[in-house]
User: What shape does this take?
Amino acid sequence: MRRSAAELIAYAGSDFSVIERALADFLMYQGVGRPGESERRSWRSSLSALADDLRQADLGAVEVLLEYQMPMTSKRADVVLAGVHPRTGDPSYVAIELKQWSRARRWEGSETLLDVDGARYRPVLHPALQVDGYVDYLRDFTAVLSSAPESIVGAAYLHNASEDGITDLRSPGVGAASRLFTGQHRADFHEFLRSRLAPVSGVRAADRLLSSHVAPSRQLLSVAADEIRQREQFELLDEQRVAYELVLNTVRTATRADTKTVVVVSGGPGSGKSVIALSLLGELAREGRTVMHGTGSRSFTQTLRAVAGRGSPRTKNLFAYFNSFMTAERNGLDVLILDEAHRLRATSVNRYTRKEVRVEARPQVDELFDAARVPVFLLDQHQVVRPGEMGSVHEIREHAERRGLRVLEVDLKGQFRSGGSDAWVEWVLRLLGLDGGGPEPWTGDDRFVVEMADSPADLESRLRDKLASGMNARMTAGYCWPWSDPRSDGTLVDDVVIGDWARPWNVRGERAVGDAPPSALWATAEGGFEQVGCVYTAQGFEYSWNGVILGPDLVWRGDRWVARREHNRDPDFRSRKTVDDATFDRLVRNVYKVLLTRGMVGTVLFSTDEETQAKLRSLLRPAR
Assistant: This one.
């Protein structure tokens, strides 16, 4: 929300409820939701204090951007001040993180994490680092700041704190701590503001920022190129190299001819789609192209951010979600790489979508077409596992041709997961009836091991043996059991109960629970083996040994599979109006296809249904 400092000062001194109501309406309009009372209290306290500081600093002419939403993310900065630099006369901006804390101390000796009394979560990030992250992000994605990075700085303002209460925050290991100000030394804050903002109108500076072109900056792409280059560990072979070179050539052609071309790369699990995606991201960044990476999976995106961006937090911001591009500038990117594109949704709209964006909403695939000159879709058509997912080659091509866009396709036939075993993936497709055929005996493959467990305890024991030998392993299951929230004591509920064996599902949220990693890191972080993963946390990942529990929602009866909706607990599958029986049958088979193809060395199977267990044994017996 934009206001002049003079307005903020006036209402803070008379009736702050005017600002409070306007800000609440603004957030509702933006699709953030109605703010709670604690957030309103924070506004009343912090913004009133800031208004008084702007008054005392004689900066009533600057523009104040409240709850400033940063591009291509849901993150918001508390305040961005826009004005004119007193020395250069150029546009100047100050991002401010406001905290009501009166006391804070280091978290277990950390220089970057803090323990704050009354905080909703513990630990919390050092506020100077928090605001510096916002500043770096804005420089990386906002053209007017990329071209003049010195025009914006950040500051943390703890208006209720004294120096005695925040001694730990003045750590020399946190360089930004010099721009952390307390209420005790407000004069220092005023001096800082006056060093960055002149007492003249900030209207033009605010206009310039709000109308700026949004795209990854050259500096960010250079950092990403170096970072990803250091992590590239794969040689692209055959169709993988074809897809890679085709995209690079298409980008160069599209740039010269000022045209748009859609590239679709399809392949099964382990065919190298994600390797191609990361290799393209690195090479295009090295060429100085504006490029971003998107997926429809929170788990996959967060893991990519953690791994590919490990050496550079800035690199993490190149990894976004499909719904990040609803309001993206048309052709603002040279290339948009869309991995796991089978997770495309019919629309990006959800309950948090801003009203004015909701009204203008288009199919998600059209938003992604528009965001780049060359959108690249990498997908596996047999991994559509949720109602509303529409990422197939046919649907993408149909949308593109309807708009008169050229489409190039590459089919990846190689198999690089499952020990390079095409045989296992083909066997799974036939087992589940996904390729037009029916189940066949598993005749074995020197590159991949398949085992049949007698019970879930036996499955777990076999996998623990693999862990003990130095390999990684995970247990997964169909969504056939309830999924409880953690107990009040911070432990997980053993929801997956089969006879006298019971284990919890993976953590639902973004925070670890005890030794259990957060949902997005279940497949990769230490501690994940102790929970059973579902399709939404396993999809997109691989591990050496894969344990799969087939639940009672898909059973073998006579000579065919029978899908039983009444045994499935996935809330997305409940309504027959949105998911008819034929669709449920297809989706539940796709779910088990995803689960069965996560292993690189071997897979251990078990079914809770006696007849299904017998059928699987009969198919696997020749290989035992």
